[in-house]
């Protein structure tokens, strides 16, 4: 059993390194995107093996649902932007220095087992081949340092006993949610603020242009959306609910709901009206503002900033998580659509 | 190539659209069932269950309305059995062709004229036929569907007509007398 | 015991179809034929794996969840196969290079 | 039993790694996209097998999320290419040959693959 798991881990690690390397070294952007989607899949499995199902859930939703769509549409936009310059023949794409297309899984796996392969690709992907050996030396040194660090680190239990000792005051039954929304609520507030900043950053860059595309004809896609959308909504809320006692929570739920929104905007069953900008702003900021307001209320009425009275902890955490889910989902869809809606400027 | 050119004998039946409240109600019932599967029946009392159910109802209203079709539940087991049987056959068929040293493929494009009306029946048909042995829906233009088949020499249309007949029975669109074998 | 045997047989049968799907992916000559491998062999493989795991599930809710996962994968596979086929039909096999 | 399930998961992982050959070789973007879709199915299988082998029911939720969102990338792929169809698209004439495309159709199309 343990030997089988070890073999699984080794294969997984080799796959991760190999995919990461080919993804970075690929000069064909579409291939790089597909490799990145594959990387996300393998990464989710790696998080499972690291016994972090919460992160695996988030990676599954973001890797499978959002990054793929985001990168593919970005690729299309890049082409659309570069289209006018199509006439002047630009320089041919830089040669792929690390390796030509091996096209051979054995070679792929062999290369990937080389401990520095990922670092090699990272440090010299599009540069001329003459930097290769110094890069190999540097990454080999880094790998040695990393291994030395790992070997000398003591494997203590970390903060797990401390969290377990205080679970009864947290208001929830899942350690990670307790840490995220009670013991270290400050971190989560800053993360929400970061999501908000990302959304605002995209909006500040300009208005979103209509994608130069139209939905695929035929009845299959609308039918699939009809099936998937309700299931995605229930699953998203289920993950939010599960967060209080099992893997799940606001980020995972927000990512699933955001992916559902992206699917909606991609399939576009009928022309969706732009939402009211005022409502959209409220929705995007709801998570961070609600969190901050309740935290401030804790400062004046409760023990301290961003702490909850013990008997109110559960409902307060639920309220904050609901707001955060809404904000994360809306921000992800807004990032996908890119730019503020035309009605904002009107 | 099979002769699948048939006149579309029964034109699509235009039916009234289902009122919004009924669609939302049905979707909410389905959402409640799904919630019970995911979270357990006891969790239906949690406010988040109501939130999920309400959101689903709202989302279904945002989707365009389909035509109201009466389901005929007695046809469901037959369709499911047929589907499972043929999809197992389809998997075995593809697996056999993939491992065969000489790759026995004769890929071809074939036209097929669909008789099912647009809406859920056609969607179901097009999704299911991609899972049947040797057929893949490529494109639909009006009634004319382009199929890709793995083996142009075999009688693909017969399976499709059988599937079409069963789906038509599921939605109560059957014009054939019951029991008539095609 | 019988449940374990059933699980072993069904999961192994599922693996055969996954392997055949990958083999088809590598050996079949064009996109359309490879799409057949995607929609049929792998979905059947996953169906058998799901079926094999059912005896190990601890309750009807888990069994229904497994069935739901399989149905979702079937729907995703059929939809994706149709859309890739349609896009290849209308726009050619290769990425436009600009 | 669990040994068998873990081995099965490892086998599925190996099929993914072999399938990567198709992503690297292409030749068409459709090939790459369908391979990614295939990986999603195998990934769901791996997660389910691991979930039962390691007795972590939460992994079934991860598999559910994967299954649910597997189609999004493919939809984005079609949307990406959902540009107005180029002239000369074979629409109504039905070539029975293996290659449905007019050879002269959009001659700038070249694979970027090397």
TrEMBL record, chain A:
Membrane topology recorded in Swiss-Prot or TrEMBL: Multi-pass membrane protein
Cellular compartments annotated: Cell membrane
UniProt keywords, alphabetically: Cell membrane, Membrane, Transmembrane, Transmembrane helix
Domain Na+/H+ antiporter MnhB subunit-related protein: 224-339
Species whose genome carries this gene: Thioalkalivibrio halophilus
Domain MrpA C-terminal/MbhD: 15-79
Record's signal peptide: none
Name listed for the protein in its UniProt record: Sodium:proton antiporter
TrEMBL record, chain B:
Pfam families cross-referenced by the UniProt entry: MNHE
Keyword line: Cell membrane, Membrane, Transmembrane, Transmembrane helix
Source organism superkingdom: Bacteria
GO molecular function per UniProt: monoatomic cation transmembrane transporter activity
Matching InterPro entries: Cation_antiport_E (IPR002758)
Topology class, membrane: Multi-pass membrane protein
Keyword Transmembrane helix attributed: yes
Sequence intervals crossing the membrane: 21-42, 48-66, 78-99, 119-138
Compartments (UniProt record): Cell membrane
Protein name, UniProt field: Cation transporter
UniProtKB/TrEMBL annotation, chain C:
Keyword Transmembrane helix: yes
Keywords from the UniProt entry: Membrane, Transmembrane, Transmembrane helix
Organism expressing this protein natively: Thioalkalivibrio halophilus
Protein name, as recorded: Cation:proton antiporter
GO molecular function: sodium:proton antiporter activity
Record carries keyword Electron transport: no
Top-rank taxon, per record: Bacteria
Pfam families referenced in this protein's UniProt entry, alphabetically: PhaG_MnhG_YufB
Ranges annotated as spanning the membrane: 6-26, 63-85
From TrEMBL, chain D:
Chief location: membrane
A Pfam family annotated for this UniProt entry: MrpF_PhaF
Transmembrane segments: 35-54, 59-78
Chain segments annotated as coiled-coil in the UniProt record: none
Region (Disordered): 84-114
Subcellular location, record wording: Cell membrane
Membrane topology (UniProt): Multi-pass membrane protein
One GO CC annotation: plasma membrane
GO molecular function: sodium:proton antiporter activity
Keywords attached to this entry: Cell membrane, Membrane, Transmembrane, Transmembrane helix, Transport
Family: Belongs to the CPA3 antiporters (TC 2.A.63) subunit F family.
Protein name (database record): Multiple resistance and pH regulation protein F
Organism of this sequence: Thioalkalivibrio halophilus
